[in-house]
Write a structure and sequence with these properties.
The complex is a heterodimer of chains A (about 250) and B (about 260). Chain A has about 250 residues and is an alpha/beta fold. Chain A has 10 helices and 10 strands. Chain B is built from 10 helices and 2 strands; from the N terminus they run αααααββααααα. Chain B has 2 domains: about 160 residues, no CATH class; about 70 residues. The chains are: A alpha/beta (about 250), B mainly alpha (about 260).
C-alpha cells in the first residue's frame, strides 16, 4: 500500500505566548482525495496548515507527507510536496511578472532552466493563464491573481495542494472558473474554507476542526445535512441553501 | 485595484521600439552613470563651463530625440530636482566673496557660479535619468542592477518596493475614502492626529503584509537567494551604441579643457 498523501498524527501546538491552538489533531488524506477543512474562526485551521509544510513545528505528534516526516532535514522536499496557496494573492505573488513568480518555486528547487520554463508553461496552462505570463500581477483581476497563485505552487509538482479560503473575495464567475481549475487537477487537495457550498461542490469529504481538535470527519453532504453539528461549531449554510437539493457531481 | 492601471511606479515608462528602448538595461545604466560623472567632473569656475553645459544639453537632447521622448515627459522628469533648485537659488545670496549686480541685486560671483553649476549639472543628470526611466521598464532596470552586481538584498528591496507600491497606495486610498466617508476633513491639530493614526496603521498593515509575503516565500522554498532566469548575452554593438552618450559628453569636456 502506498503511503497516504498526508498523515497528521496527534499534533498539538502552543504559540510562544502560551496560547494553545491545537490539541492532538489526527488527519489522513489518501492520494487524490479532495477534502474540505471546515471550522469557525479561531478553530486552529491556519495553525494546522502551517504545520503541513513545516513553517510551524508541532510541540507533540507528527506530520508526514507521502511517507516523508516533516522535520528540519526534510524541509526542502516537504515544501516541494506541499503547495500552500494563501488567502491574499498579493501575498503570494511578489515577483515582477506572472511567469517569474511561477518560476520562483522551481528555481528554488534548483531545476535547470529549460525544465523551469516547461513547468511554468504547464502550470499557467493548467489554470488558464498562459497568455498572461509576462504581465505584472497587479494588472490582473482578483480572480486571475488567485489562479496564478495556484499555478505558483503547481509548478513545484506538489503531492498535495493546500488552499486557504480559495473562494474568498471572488465574484461568482471567478469562483466558478477556480472550481473548474481545481476539479481538473490530479492532486490531493486540502481546502480550508467557510464557504460550505464550495466545499460541497469540490470536496466529497469534509473535516470539521473546532477548539484545536477534529470534531467531525465524513462525507461533506452528510456533515452539511447535520444541522446540530453545524450549529454547535458556528458553521452556517447560506440562506435558502439545502445540501439535499444539490445534485451529486 | 485602487491605483491607476499602470501603477504608481510604472507610470514613467513609455513603451517603444527605438534604438534606446532596445538597449539592455544594464548597458543603459552604465551609460547614464558615466554621463553623469562626466558632467559632474566639469569645473564650475572655468570660463568655458557654460559652453560645456550647453554641449551636454545638446548630447542628452539628441538621445531623447532618438528615443522619441516627448519634451513634456522630460520636463515632468525634472520635478524631482526641485529641492536642488531651491538650494542652488540660495547659494548666490549666502556665499561670501566679490559681488556682482544681477537684476539690481548684489550677489556673490562665486555663489552664482557654484549655484548655476549645481543647477546645470543636476538638470543634465536628471534629464539623462529621465530618458533612462522613460525607455526602460522598472523590472528591466532591476535586472540591470542585478547584472551590475548591486548587492542582492538591495535589488530585492527595490523589487518589493515596485511590486507593492500599488498595493500600499491602494490601502492608503481606501483608508482615505473611509475617513472622508465619515465626514473627516484634514484641519488643525485634530486632523493631524487622525493622519498620524492613518500612517501608523498603514505601517502596521504593511509590516504584517511583509510577514505574510515572507511566509509565502518560505513555503515555496525561499532560502535567502532570489534566483532569476538566465541573462541574455549582450551584443558588443549595444555597448558601443550606449556609450555614445558618455563618450560624446567626455569629448565636450575634453574640448573645454583643451580650448578653454
Amino acid at each position: 500500500m502506498t503511503a497516504p498523501s498526508l498523515l497528521v498524527e496527534d499534533v498539538a501546538f502552543a504559540y510562544p505566548d502560551g496560547h494553545q491552538a491545537l490539541f492532538g489533531v489526527d488527519l489522513r488524506l489518501e492520494r487524490g482525495e479532495r477534502v474540505a477543512l471546515l471550522g469557525p474562526n479561531g478553530a486552529g485551521k491556519t495553525t494546522l496548515v502551517l504545520h503541513l509544510n513545516g513553517i510551524l513545528r508541532a510541540g507533540r505528534g507528527r506530520v508526514s507527507v507521502a511517507g516523508l516526516p516533516v522535520g528540519k532535514p526534510t524541509l526542502r522536499e516537504i515544501r516541494r510536496r506541499v503547495g500552500v496557496v494563501f488567502q491574499d494573492p498579493d501575498d503570494q505573488l511578489f515577483m515582477p511578472t506572472v511567469a517569474e513568480d511561477v518560476a520562483f518555486g522551481p528555481r528554488n528547487l534548483g531545476l535547470p532552466e529549460p525544465e523551469v520554463a516547461a513547468r511554468v508553461a504547464a502550470a499557467l496552462d493548467r489554470v488558464g493563464m498562459a497568455e498572461f505570463a509576462d504581465r505584472p500581477p497587479h494588472h490582473l483581476s482578483f480572480g486571475q491573481r488567485r489562479r496564478v497563485a495556484v499555478a505558483t505552487v503547481l509548478s513545484m509538482d506538489p503531492e498535495i495542494l493546500v488552499l486557504d479560503e480559495p473562494s474568498s473575495n471572488l465574484d461568482p464567475a471567478g469562483r466558478r472558473e477556480l472550481a473548474e481549475v481545481l476539479q481538473a487537477l490530479p492532486v490531493t487537495l486540502l481546502m480550508v474554507t467557510h464557504d460550505l457550498p464550495y466545499a460541497l461542490q469540490l470536496c466529497p469529504r469534509s473535516v470539521v476542526l473546532d477548539g484545536g481538535a477534529v470534531v467531525a470527519d465524513g462525507p461533506t453532504r452528510d456533515l452539511l445535512a447535520d444541522a446540530d453539528l453545524l450549529a454547535a461549531h458556528r458553521l452556517e449554510l447560506p440562506y435558502g441553501f439545502d445540501p439535499a437539493n444539490v445534485p451529486s457531481s | 485595484m485602487g491605483a491607476g492601471h499602470g501603477g504608481a511606479l510604472t507610470a514613467r515608462y513609455v513603451g517603444g521600439t527605438t534604438r534606446v528602448h532596445r538597449l539592455e538595461p544594464h548597458v543603459k545604466l552604465v551609460a547614464v552613470l558615466a554621463f553623469a560623472l562626466v558632467v559632474v567632473a566639469t569645473p564650475v569656475h572655468a570660463a568655458w563651463a557654460p559652453a560645456a553645459y550647453a554641449g551636454y544639453l545638446v548630447v542628452v537632447l539628441a538621445v531623447a530625440a532618438v528615443a522619441r521622448v516627448r519634451p513634456g515627459r522630460l520636463a515632468r522628469g525634472l520635478v524631482v530636482e526641485l529641492p536642488f533648485v531651491a538650494f542652488a537659488l540660495l547659494l548666490p545670496f549666502v556665499t561670501a566673496g566679490p559681488r556682482v549686480e544681477v537684476l539690481g541685486l548684489a550677489v556673490s560671483r562665486s555663489g552664482l557660479e557654484t549655484g548655476g553649476g549645481l543647477l546645470a549639472k543636476a538638470t543634465l543628470s536628471v534629464l539623462a535619468a529621465t530618458v533612462l526611466a522613460v525607455t526602460t521598464e522598472p523590472r528591466a532596470l532591476l535586472r540591470g542592477l542585478q547584472r551590475l552586481r548591486l548587492p542582492a538584498v538591495l535589488v530585492q528591496i527595490l523589487m518589493f518596493m515596485i511590486r507593492y507600491a500599488d498595493v500600499v497606495t491602494g490601502e492608503l486610498q481606501r483608508m482615505r475614502v473611509a475617513r472622508e466617508s465619515r465626514g473627516f476633513r484634514a484641519r488643525g491639530a485634530a486632523g493631524l492626529r487622525v493622519l498620524g493614526a492613518t500612517a501608523g496603521s498603514l505601517f502596521v498593515r504593511s509590516y504584517e503584509r511583509g510577514e505574510r509575503v515572507h511566509l509565502a516565500m518560505l513555503s515555496r522554498g525561499y532560502d535567502g537567494h532570489l534566483r532569476t532566469g538566465p541573462a541574455a548575452a549582450v551584443r558588443p554593438r549595444a555597448w558601443a551604441t550606449a556609450l555614445t552618450l558618455p563618450v560624446a559628453a567626455a569629448a565636450v569636456l575634453t574640448a573645454g579643457f583643451v580650448l578653454g
